[in-house]
Structures are given as C-alpha cells and as structure tokens.
Please model this.
Amino acid sequence: MKANPDHEKFLIECTNEWLDGATKWNEWRDVNKNIIPQLCNIDFTKLEENYKKNHLKEIGYFRLDQFNLINTNFSNSNLKNISFDGADLRSAQFRNANLEGANFRNTKLDGVDFSNANLKHVAFQKSTGVFKYKNADFGGGNGEQIIEVARIDGWDTESWNTFRSRNKDINLQGAYLVPNNKRNCFYRFDFSNINLQDTMLFSTTYNSCNFKNSNLKGANLIKCELQISDFSNSNLMKTNLGMSNLLASNFENADLTNANLQDTNLTYCDFTGARLHKVDFNHAIMIGTILNNAELSHSNIYGVSAWDLSLENTVQSQLNISKKDEIAITVDDIEVAQFIYLLINNQKIRNVINTVTSKTVLILGRFYKERKVVLDALRENLKKYDLAPIIFDFEPSSNRDLTETIQLLANMAKFVIADLTDAKSIPQELSHIIPFFPSVPILPILLEKERSYSMFEHWKRFDSVLPIFNYKDENHLIESISLQIIKPVNDWKEGKNKLTEAELKLEEQKKKFEDLKASDPEQYQKLLDLGIIS
Model:
C-alpha cells in the first residue's frame, strides 16, 4: 500500500503551521471520521528538513504532538526522531517502521501495532495502553522490561524494587530511560548487574546509585549528577559521561576504553585498577583522584586540572596534551602535562621561566632524622613567603645522574640554602653549582658551635656565596627567615640588578662611540685626545 498524497500534503500543511497545526488536523479528522489516513512508506526525515526551514531552530525535530492519529497507517515509514508527544495513536499501524529515537511520551497506544518496527531509544514515558510489538527491535533489549521500566511513575524506589524482584536477568539495552520529570532524583537505586548497553540516561540525577558489574557500554550519561555512585567492575567502554558530576564515585577495575569524560568532575574518584585507554579527559577536574594500578594510556588530557593525584603503580603512556585538530604531543605523566604544554607554547616560555625562577628555593643538607626535622620545618615556613622550597632528598631522574639533577634544580632556583651542619655530600653538590651558576645566590646556614667543612673557605671568594648564617636551634632558624635569609638574598639580587644596569649603560655608551668613530672620525679623534674616550 502507498501513502495517500492528499493525506501527506495536508499533514505537511498542518505541521508547517506549528502552533495551530494539531488543531487544524484534528478538526479535519472530526469532520471526516470515516477516513483512515494513509501515511505509509513515507520518509519523514526528508520532510523534517523542510520543517526546520519553516520553524525556529529551537523547536527541534519533526513534531506531531497532540495530533489525532487514531487508526493512521504509518507502516514502512521512516519516522526516526519524530515526536508524537500527547498524540492519540489508538489502533495506529507502525509495522516495519523505523521509529528509532521517536518520542511517544504521554500518548495513547491501545491497539497500536509495532510489529517488526525499530523501537531503539523510543521514549514510552507516561504512555498508556496495551500494544503489539511482535519481532520489534528495541535495540537488543527485552521489550517487555523496557516498556515497564519506562512507565514506572516517578521511578519510585518501591516500584523499582518490585520490578527487580520479578526479573532476575534484566536487559534494558537500547532503551530510552530519561524520566518524564527531569527533576527526579534516583537516590541509592540499585542498577547493579543490569545490561544497560547503549541506553539513554542523560540529564538525570543518580546520586549514590549502584551500577556495580553493569554493562553500560555506549550508554549516554551526559550531563548527569552521579555523585558517590559505584561503577566498580562495570563495562563503560564508549560510554558518554561528558559534563557529568562524578564526585567521589567508585570506578575500581572498571573498563572505560574509549569513554568520554570531557568536562567531568572527577574529584576524589577512585579509578584503582581501571582501564583508561583512549579516554577523552579534556577539561576534566581531577582533584585527589585515585589512579593506583590503573592503565592510563593513549588518552586526551588537554586542559585537565590535576591536583594531589594518587598514582601508585599507575601505567602512564602516550597522553595527548594537544587540542583537538592539532598535531598530537604526548607525555607519560599526567601531573607534568600542563608544565610541558607551557614549555612548548613559545609565547608562554618566558612566563614559565620567570615564575619558576622567582619562587623555587633549593634546600641542600643532611637528611638523617634529626637534621631532616629542621630542614622540613624550614621548608614549610618558607612557603609562607610565597616561595616553592624543594628539599633534595629524593632519587634522581632515571635519565639524569645525581649531579645533573642537582644542577637542573639549582638552575631553576631563585636561591639555594646550603645547610653546612655535619656536611657530607654538600661539598660535592656545591662544587657543581657555585662555579657554573653565578646568578644563583647561595645562602649557607650552620648550627652554632658547628664548623663548616674546611674547603668551604674556597667558595667564600665567589660573589654569589653570601655570608654564613649561624642559628642556635630550629626555632631560631624559623624566626630568622625574614631577616637572615630572605633579606640578604633580596639585597644581593638588587645589587646585582644595579650592576647589570650599569654594565648595560656602559655598553650603550661604547656603542655610541663606535658609531661616532665610523661616522665622524675627526670628532672621535678630538674626544680621544682630550681623554674623554679611553
């Protein structure tokens, strides 16, 4: 059977009027009760293009909302994404129709025939009536279960628990489960061990819900509230969680391969043992996030805010720090990603260097228990002066030896504090700093009644080595930071800057004389004879 061209033409005419279209159609139906509209074998997606041209962009897809479509024949038609919200569809025919993504909210569906139809992602919320769906494709899920769940009023806990008790194996694959009222909050609902593959769950609140061991592959959870929820051991491959709030949620041993976590809040989330391969983390917030024993590889991390991460035994590789559509630049450590990005962004290098060299303080000394306590206290109190102190008590880099690591840190420092008390490695460390970095001041400190090592006298001749500050104890050292550490360093740098300015002026004057010699040799010779030029 083919569509009736008059019926099709009149339907298009009504939809183009938008606000009064349903009224006009319904009045025609009331007058012509014996006419059964034949709208079969029509590709409504093509009509949709004209529909959008005649309506505001905000209206969305093709709408037949509130239309009287009783007994209407839509068989074999392509009705993808069409909205029937509030329509009367009793005894309508949708055999072999493509209804993927269609909206049947608030519809009357008594006697409707959906046999062999594509019902993937169809919204049945608030619909009423018994209908046929023999051999219909719900996207891989159990049609009976999908319809029942979609119609649970308000998704109240009691109705959900009753549904769960009657259904051991729940398969909601391909379902549209966004509630009619988007204010609904599913607090502490149990979605564990359910097949939710390729489901529509977006823009909904699921705080403290249990998704443990569930299959959420390809599911759409964009813009959801999912705080303190449990996704442990779940399949989240290709799942879209973009722009969702996942605060303190559990993803232990979950598989998030190819998942979208762009613009998400992952603060305090636990990804222990999770597979994070080819994940889009762009612009995600990761504060206190746990990634222990996780595989973090080939993922996009541009714009990630990463603070206080736990990365014990985390495998990190090929993390892309570039924007989309830019040449990929990868790092193997998420915590240094932003630093590396700033370095390769030429316009920012100067700012990076200035910031690092104006704040970093390298602290050298002995690190056995008694001395470590004093130096740790010094480090913590230096932070109060807006400085970033580093105590060199860690293993050097795998691709730099001890000497190179010390030199690298010294080169980045505003100044170096060298505790000469009971010195052991200090002589060697200073021998690789003082001669090579004359612009980095060295402030030696020494516990009273202790002597500096004999060879230190040699370094006192260098301009960058400041006088030794002798401190009585830890308290005395901390109380003297401002006057005995910060002030001498600043005074030295100020004097150095003045010297540099004088040197620049002298060089400028020399250049002027050289220019004069080239342009006016006679005048130059006169100044030379008068002793003005030496």
